Amino acid sequence: MSILTFWKRRPAEQPDVAAPTAQPRETAPEQRERPAAAAATGGRQVLVVEDDDSLRDLVARNLTARGHQVRQAADAGEALEALGRETPEVLVLDINLPDATGWDILRAAQLSPATAVIMLTAVPVSPKRLQEFRPVAYLPKPFPIEALMRLVERNGRREEDHDADPL
Amino acid sequence: MPTPSDRPRMLVPFDGSAAAERVLRAACQASKEDDAPLVVLCVVPVPAGLAPDETPPDVEERVMRALVRATDVCHEEGVIAVFHQTYATDLADEILRKADQMQATVIAMPLHGEAETELMSPVVQQVLAGAHCTVMLGAPRARPLHACPVDRGWSA
């Protein structure tokens, strides 16, 4: 796929009522696995949810090259499946996905507050959604890939927020 | 119907740069869309060791011009915002203080300021580290820029 596909205009944000095609697993947040391999190497456990294959691959390659342990999901179904298996330290989440919105994933997954969420989107920011889900950062597309790398490495959220109210 | 205190609130630190203007315009659109009060903050950077009234006049004037520009942008976008001009030695501290004070939902700012060339400025990094709310970095561009190699900071 051409690099030019990174620039494709994305469709308007899907309505909030759009439900993910896959339901979250029954696993309680505290029962999910949290592999220690990346932590041991100083990298982060990152889940990248993005339906644009080229962009997802670009982000994943850059994160992997920096020592992070990266999992990828191309849609909400895959994302919820991955989140049901383990809790990432950082969730890089596109808002417009083919089967649901990133907001739907956040609503369904009920992430631990220890997971820093970085939203990616080409659609205008919605303060109401930000108020509801409190992602650490909101990075409008197109963005410099280095900015995302730094956001992931900072892991955004302050320590004291980890014990605060959930996303 | 949500009370004013339930509504999401947006803080836009504004330095008059083109990047900050793009962010402000995006924030104006969002403010209209979600009926979110918008506060524009222009900070006069006070050199360490000086009192606010000892700030170099050209610095003060630059910030004043930024403030006027911000009012123009909001007027063009059809948004009624609240504008604040303050003096501070530590810009990030001031932004965070204001965000906490107004219980901001989001701080919207560019990746770097007018006088900075770094991709993610120290001010942005401090704000990210200290913010109790979401930090929106930049605004969507209407048109793509040029592609560039992976290790030289592609735009995605």
Characterize the structure shown.
The complex is a heterodimer of chains A (167) and B (156). By secondary structure, chain A is an alpha/beta fold. Helix content of chain A is 31%, strand content 15%. Chain A has six helices and five strands. A five-stranded parallel sheet of chain A has the order 2-1-3-4-5, with helices on both faces. In chain A, helix 3 (76-85) packs parallel to helix 4. Chain A is globular. The N and C termini of chain A lie far apart (35 Å). Residues 1-37 and 156-167 of chain A have low confidence and may be disordered. Chain B has 156 residues and is α/β, with parallel strands linked by helices. Helix content of chain B is 37%, strand content 17%. Chain B contains four helices and five strands. Chain B has helices at 18-34, 57-77, 91-101, 122-130; strands at residues 10-13, 38-45, 82-88, 106-109, 134-137. In chain B, strands 3-2-1-4-5 form a five-stranded parallel sheet, with helices on both faces. Chain B is globular. In chain B, 42% of the residues are buried. Chain A binds chain B through residues 3-4, 6-7, 55, 58-59, 61-62, 121-128, 130-131, 134-148, 150-151, 154, 156, 158, 161, and chain B through 8-10, 26-27, 29-31, 33-34, 36, 105-106, 108, 111, 119-120, 125, 128-141, 144-145, 147, 150, 153-156.
